[in-house]
Amino acid sequence: MTSSDEQLRAIWRQLGAGDRASLLAFAEFLQQRGTTSNPPPARVAEPEVIERPAGESVVAALKRLSKTYPMIDKSEMLSATSDLVATHIMQGTEASAVVDQLEEIFSEHYRQLRERGN
After folding, report:
1. By C-alpha distance, which of 8, 20, 42, 33 is closest to 115?
2. pLDDT 10s per residue in the chain (118 long)?
3. For residues 58 and 33, what is the distance between their CA atoms, to the nearest angstrom?
């Protein structure tokens, strides 16, 4: 038995019937409230489906995907997305190919967020 178990038992023995009932009611309240060491995972919101327009630019795609996935921390994707934008601008990579890759990046980060549960 741990010291906290022993301490709780000692306190219990010193309480009167009314206080024992209060302590038990409070313990049940804490249990129902979910203050255990394993709280339920937070629910991650569903993405807002925004259709991809034909001929969408890379910048417009970034704005659309940011609205589609507002729950994602964009700073986590900054390196990957900025590399794609730079490649598009500097090397002339086709916009539709870059937008496809951006969609994959956002989708993957959303999947990871759901797995983490926050």
Report:
1. 42
2. 678 888 888 888 998 888 787 777 777 666 666 655 555 556 889 999 999 999 999 999 999 999 999 999 888 888 899 999 999 999 999 999 999 999 999 999 999 999 887 5
3. 46
With vertex at residue 33, the alpha carbon angle to CA 29 and CA 14, rounded to the nearest 5 degrees, is 30
Contacts of 33 (CB under 8 A, 6+ apart): none
Q: Scanning the structure block, which residue is given the tokens 């302590």?
A: 23
- Domains of the chain, by residue range, sit at 3-33, 58-116
Cα–Cα distance measured from residue 2 to residue 8, given in angstroms and rounded to the nearest whole number:
10
Q: What is the pTM of this model?
A: 0.64
